[in-house]
Amino acid sequence: MSDKPDLDAQTLAMKRFILWVPLVIAAIFFGFFTYALFFGNSSPQQRAIESQLIGQPMPEFALEPSLPGRPGLSSADLATGEPRLVNFFASWCVPCIAEAPQLMQLREAGVAIDAIAVRDRPEDVFAFLQRWGDPYERIGADTQSEAQLALGSSGVPETFVVDGNGVIVRQHIGDIRPEHVPELLAALEDAR
Amino acid sequence: MTRWLAAMILATILVGPVHAQSRMAGAEWANQQLPDPTQEAEAKELMESLRCLVCQGQSIADSDADMASDMRALVRRRITEGEDPEDIRAWLVERYGRWITYDPPMDAVTWPLWLLPILLVGFGVWLARGRFRTRKRDG
Questions:
Q1: What is the pLDDT along chain A (192 residues), one digit of tens a residue?
Q2: Distances A66 to A25, A120, A129 between C-alpha atoms, Å
Q3: Is A146 an 8 Å CB contact of chain B?
Q4: What kind of fold does domain B24-105 have according to CATH?
Q5: Inter-chain residue contact B22 with A120, CB threshold 8 Å
Q6: Considering only alpha carbons, which residue of chain A is nearest residue B78?
Q7: Contact present, B51 and B62 (Cβ < 8 Å)
Q8: Residue A109 distance to chain B (closest CA, Å)
Q9: Where are the domains of chain B?
Q10: Which alpha helices (DSSP H) does chain B contain, by range?
């Protein structure tokens, strides 16, 4: 009978311990929330959705010309034996203005650039290119974002690097800033 | 003071949305129901479980973004062509990853979502049982 109080003390200690468990679980949960809110770089507001098609052949699409007298763009046009860029842009997109000088710089470096104009009217595309420069060979009109959805792209501007066989090797999300130009040139060189 | 207040209220009302949007009208079927109610019901169910890429956190059925309207058009058009809703979902997941669907499939990464609640309820039952037993013995 002498060990009875000891057993009770033991169960009491166990009970006390168990009472803390929910608090610990809650603390872990809120720790995660706090981390995601303040330090997470994948919080919903900042998250860029990457295309899952990197390393895969360009999906089938065929777009009408965005401007009269200029060629449109289809996926078959991209397997030319040489790597190229496919730039999603729109006249209504402000960051597209910011990347225009960098696209011109790439064009001057000898890079072939094709474009997909998202939800855009010919007159607006024409005015945009008149004002900010025209680095493009072909411009396809993606009036219902069909090509954009087919490529797994989630906004404008976005730029895809395509190798000579028409395989997507890289996706650049957002505007091309001056510091991104060497990266893109290197990616194009690697795709050769 | 009142003038300031009025100016502030006016400024709040007049502030426009920051998102740039296209001037093009919505695609066919973007904001229009399908004539066949069965097909429309299928489309609606799918659209409510697909995430908008622009207004992340809204479904494409709820979002006013241009891209969401183009996605609604895609869903409705493909359903009229007789495509199975789950095939349309799979087509999008292939492009955007599981992130795009609000109805994630159970696999190696997502199994805790299903299993954890069962384990936690089990733990709760075990905890409650212990407490009830003690009370009975005390009474």
A1: 445 556 788 888 888 888 899 899 999 999 988 887 777 665 555 567 899 999 999 999 999 999 999 999 999 999 999 999 999 999 999 999 999 999 999 999 999 999 999 999 999 999 999 999 999 999 999 999 999 999 999 989 999 999 999 999 999 999 999 999 999 999 999 998
A2: 57, 8, 12
A3: yes
A4: Helicase, Ruva Protein; domain 3 (1.10.8)
A5: yes
A6: A146
A7: no
A8: 31
A9: 24-105, 106-139
A10: 2-14, 37-48, 66-80, 85-96, 111-138
- Residue B73 touches chain A, beta carbons under 8 Å: yes
- For the record, the structure tokens of A175 come out as 């505007």
Enter the tokens of residue A23. Answer: 């608090």
pTM of this structure: 0.77
Report the gap between the CA of B109 and the closest CA in chain A (Å). Answer: 17
What's the residue count for chain A? 192
Helix (H, G, I), strand (E, B) or coil at B59: strand
**CATH class name, domain A62-190:** alpha beta
A12 at interface of B, judged by CB pairs closer than 8 A? no
Residue of chain A whose alpha carbon sits nearest to that of B97? A52
Residue numbers in chain B where pLDDT is lower than 50? 16-18
